[in-house]
Write a structure and sequence with these properties.
This protein has about 140 residues and is mainly alpha-helical. It has a domain of about 90 residues. It has five helices and three strands. Helix 1 packs across helix 3. The longest helix has 22 residues. The relative contact order is 0.18.
């Protein structure tokens, strides 16, 4: 399945199912769970897998990270070109955050894989969503 704003939620759910099957726990779509995503990416890297070999799971985890933003920070999936982020993002779907801000959660997961702890997806959320920001689940 190709990544797009409409397929990203399905890809995220596929990653949740894979993680539950492989590691025995379910990712709950919470900001706190992003620490687990960092750990999973590190574990994938530790197996010696190449980025190409891991790209399907990394893409799915990036979609999961994006869905955490969608469900908790009023973000929405958009086409990268629509957000004018094509020059700096290699994936066709990114997030629009409240205000004029865009975010590349899929790219950040790949960056974590390449560079390690300095590119934490949990820190991406903390930097993009100020403490006390309204939760999208509240009326």
């Amino acid at each position: 399945m190709r990544i797009s704003p409409s397929t990203a939620p399905q890809l995220a759910e596929g990653s949740v199912a894979f993680v539950e099957h492989k590691f025995g726990f379910r990712l709950p779509y919470t900001p706190e769970s992003l620490i687990l995503v960092d750990a999973i990416v590190d574990k994938i890297k530790a197996t010696g897998a190449t980025e190409e070999q891991a790209s399907g799971l990394l893409s799915g985890l990036g979609c999961y990270v994006g869905e955490v933003f969608v469900r908790n920070a009023k973000a929405s999936w958009r086409r990268t070109a629509e957000m004018r982020m094509s020059k700096r993002c290699r994936f066709p779907a990114v997030l629009a955050l409240p205000g004029p801000t865009g975010c590349d959660p899929i790219g950040r997961v790949f960056q974590r894989f390449r560079c390690g702890p300095t590119d934490s997806v949990a820190m991406l959320y903390e930097a993009a969503v100020p403490r006390g920001a309204p939760d999208s689940r509240r009326p």
